[in-house]
Amino acid sequence: ETGVTQSPTHLIKTRGQQVTLRCSSQSGHNTVSWYQQALGQGPQFIFQYYREEENGRGNFPPRFSGLQFPNYSSELNVNALELDDSALYLCASSQKPAGVTGELFFGEGSRLTVL
Amino acid sequence: DQQVKQNSPSLSVQEGRISILNCDYTNSMFDYFLWYKKYPAEGPTFLISISSIKDKNEDGRFTVFLNKSAKHLSLHIVPSQPGDSAVYFCAASALYSGGGADGLTFGKGTHLIIQP
Does residue B79 have a cis bond before it (omega within 30 degrees)? Predict the structure, then answer.
């Protein structure tokens, strides 16, 4: 059984640039959610995708957007990068939307540094 | 405003003893709670959960206790082993109240260090 995989593992961008992070969900999982973990903080919910549609969103501005593909993989896009966007971005998958079960399976994360 | 609080950034426990990690929450809509464990350079791993209809859930060496009136939960690890050294996150959801799509709300974590 393949777990959640994320790419890239590390990347450096400058302010104002755009970034795309990718995630392959665990086999059999149809729901993907994204979390931002700043240094010294717990993960913070960005949004969740179920069957290719966003069905839940945290307190993040519209420049954070995402996609889920028919194979349930997902992308997180961040436009107009700011210094505060520097963080570990975690992708998590589950068999059902978080409205049914709260257990999530996380990937190792993508470490984004904005200079 | 933090809705899930883990007030101990770190905790040191001797191998073989009991480790007790604490978590407080403020949102009364939360009705499902989870503990995650995180090693460096890895994603968080689910450990144990509890719904608000229970006050205790046990899985091997791990037991979670929930005190709804105090809005407090704790994770007990008995006996503590060197491999338990990690950061532990408490998380909460309004799962059964229809807020499951709002994701999980995490605390800042407690770094547990098991000393030989």
Answer: yes
pLDDT tens-digit map of B55-80: 999 999 999 999 999 999 999 999 99
Tell me if A108 and B98 make a contact (CB, 8 A cut-off).
Answer: no
Contacts of A110 in chain B (CB under 8 A): none
**DSSP-assigned letter for residue A84:** G
Q: Which of residues 34-73 of A touch B (CB under 8 A)?
A: 35, 40-45, 47-48, 55-56, 58
Cβ contact A43–B89 (<8 Å):
yes
Between CA A62 and CA A37 the distance in angstroms is 18
Furthest C-alpha separation in chain B: 45
> Which residues in B lie closer than 8 A to residue A47 (C-beta atoms)?
103
Q: What is the pLDDT of residues A87-97, one digit of tens each?
A: 999 999 988 66
CA angle A38, A43, A45 (to 5 degrees): 115
Which residues of chain B lie closer than 8 angstroms to A40, CB-CB? 108
For residue A107, the cross-strand partners are none
Q: How far apart are CA A65 and CA A106, in angstroms?
A: 19
